[in-house]
Specification:
TIM Barrel; single chain; 294 residues; 7 strands; alpha/beta; 5-stranded parallel sheet; globular; 13 helices; two-stranded antiparallel ribbon
Length: 294
Amino acid sequence: MEEQKAAIDALSAMGCYYYSISGGEPTLVKDLKERLRYASAKIPYVHLVTNGLLSEEKMVSEIVSTGIKEISISIDGTEKFHNALRGREDGFQKAFNTLKLYAAHSDKLQLTVNSILTKRSLSELRELRKMLDDFPGVHYKYLPLSVHELFQNDAGIDKAFPGNDASIDEMEAFLNEAAADDRNVNSKIFLKKAKLFFRGQEDILPEQKQCVYSYHAVEFGPDASVYPCRTGMNFASEISGKTDLKEFYSSAKCSNIQKELKSCKRCRNTMPLCYYEPRLNFPITNLVKYYFSK
């Protein structure tokens, strides 16, 4: 707790606008409410990602009361599909019940459904979108499933998904619909790149030849270790949670890590939300808003 608070203090002092907590599963943390409340008092936009398995009415009310701005619930399709992916017979029902609980508070925070997008989940996501029509305040976001260098054994993982492959034309039509839908919170640029990804284009992020992720983002592991990019650092950080974050970011060590990560290629030919969306959804105008809020 103290290490997380120290990191939040440092991020706030450096002008951080967006702070996201994901897992694992954050609702397993017993003092989550206190952590969220502290972050919300220091950073303008705090976001929580959950699988919705543990949420009850009391927990939902407590989390909403912390002042966070957004909740994302992971739902990958209709009941049979979602449960098959998650390996739980009650997964969908619990997640959807959590969605209903948070929807009652959608005037106080943005509520988003996160879904994996593959050639085999297209029809499922269309059905899920129809179900979400009953919740006009709910948004949705798609993440194309990528084969990653660090997890080479997942090649062909699409085949583990129930269902049949959609055609490239069907994928592009779906992504066009998402781009035109006000309830979809993916940026239009990200969705445009996703078309290239599903076409199998080799170089979907040509502008990432010099990666700038470590200049606008920082990640923390469960032990509070600091990663200018966890993937780029191969999930092995030399920087502990006891590090003074502001001091670290003005150090030669940090500068050297950022320079090394510029030429990192571990995310090439994948669709990392983290690379695009924070810069596009939280643009420079937020700097002005942040300045005047102070």
